[in-house]
């Protein structure tokens, strides 16, 4: 199902429509460093996290934005230079890095599994968390009927990571031109999936970035079962969330909740629209039918 969704996202999310939405008219104008600082400062203040989180600008970063957890008590949002944020997309970035990653880490310390995940036999959560962050990044776009919440970046990372396994750096750079016209963006995408590789002529890469699409699909498949308030209450996979929720072992008292969780009806509406625009339910249904046919042909 993921391969079909990847192809759908790439084909539907490309071209002039995607460029207008993310990098042009509908994405709004590029914002300045001062404006970026104000956006991050206000977002952090709205969650009353000033004592726990700050931000700083840095050059030569692989990702345009990430959260760094230092040895002191304060974490930092690292904002890559030069800036490429647009006024109608900056909140989505903060939903991803602060409203999802940092909030889940912050809330995690109030959970019974904190610093002892083995006790509750908890599984790896990074794939589902990156998927959740990617979906939360699209929240405002999904609620705007004039825009389409394509999962383009998640699909692009998935595709690039796979193609890195069969192409050299140069071959991948040339191949991605059919999806990414901008030379700098295409170069950075190649660096993401080829980082750490000494011989870039070799067909190998870093495959971690496939988690965005895989996690998004898993969450959208399970969205009718997930209680998203408690899903943001700590670092957990979808599977562990459903299990621990049933056991009443997720503490939601006093947790930090970003603005997009204040109205759960709107949040679920946003997820439904992301699934609808990206054809998630249709692809999952087709995949399940194929699996059933395969099982019927090979019983036992």
Task: Explain this structure.
The protein is mostly helical. It is built from 14 helices and three strands. It has helices at residues 2-13, 15-23, 33-46, 90-108, 126-137, 139-142, 152-164, 169-175, 183-194, 211-221, 228-231, 238-246, 264-277, 280-297, and strands at 53-59, 65-69, 75-81. A three-stranded mixed β-sheet has the order 1-3-2, covered by helices on one side. Helix 4 packs antiparallel against helix 5, helix 7 (152-164) crosses helix 9 (183-194) and helix 7 crosses helix 10. The radius of gyration is 20 Å and the shape is globular. The chain starts with a helix and ends with a helix. 36% of the residues are buried. The mean pLDDT is 90.
Short structural summary:
By secondary structure, the chain is mainly alpha-helical. The protein is 53% helix and 6% strand. The chain is globular.
Radius of gyration: 20 Å
For the biggest β-sheet, the strand order reads 1-3-2
Order of helices and strands: HHHEEEHHHHHHHHHHH
Query: Which bin fits the share of residues in helices?
Result: 40-55%
From the spread of the alpha carbons, the general shape counts as globular
Count of alpha/pi helices: 14
Classification by helices and strands: mainly alpha
What is the mean pLDDT? 90
Largest sheet: 3 strands, mixed
Contiguous low-pLDDT stretches (5 residues minimum) are: none
Oligomer state equals single chain
Number of separate strands: 3
Q: Which percent range describes the beta-strand content?
A: 5-15%
End-to-end separation in angstroms reads: 23 Å
């Amino acid at each position: 199902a993921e391969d079909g969704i990847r192809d759908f996202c790439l084909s539907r999310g490309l071209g002039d429509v995607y460029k207008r939405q993310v990098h042009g008219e509908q994405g709004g104008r590029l914002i300045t460093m001062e404006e970026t600082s104000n956006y991050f400062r206000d977002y952090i203040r709205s969650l009353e996290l000033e004592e726990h989180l700050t931000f700083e600008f840095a050059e030569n970063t692989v990702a345009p934005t990430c959260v760094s957890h230092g040895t002191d008590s304060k974490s930092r949002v690292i904002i890559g230079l030069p800036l490429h944020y647009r006024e109608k997309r900056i909140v989505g970035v903060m939903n991803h890095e602060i409203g999802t990653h940092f909030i889940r880490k912050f809330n995690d310390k109030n959970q019974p599994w904190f610093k002892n995940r083995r006790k509750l036999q908890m599984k790896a959560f990074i794939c589902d968390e990156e998927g959740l962050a990617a979906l939360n990044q699209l929240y405002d776009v999904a609620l705007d009927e004039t825009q389409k919440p394509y999962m383009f970046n998640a699909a692009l990372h998935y595709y690039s990571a796979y193609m890195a396994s069969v192409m050299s750096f140069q071959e991948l750079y040339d191949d991605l031109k059919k999806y990414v016209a901008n030379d700098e963006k295409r170069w950075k995408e190649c660096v993401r999936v080829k980082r750490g590789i000494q011989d870039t002529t070799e067909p190998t890469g870093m495959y971690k970035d496939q988690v965005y699409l895989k996690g998004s699909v898993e969450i959208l498949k399970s969205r009718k079962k997930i209680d998203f308030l408690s899903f943001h209450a700590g670092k957990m996979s979808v599977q562990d969330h459903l299990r621990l929720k049933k056991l009443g072992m997720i503490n939601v008292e006093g947790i930090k909740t970003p603005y997009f969780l204040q109205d759960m009806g709107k949040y679920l509406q946003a997820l439904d629209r992301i699934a609808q625009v990206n054809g998630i339910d249709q692809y999952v249904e087709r995949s399940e039918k194929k699996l059933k046919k395969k099982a019927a042909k090979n019983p036992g």
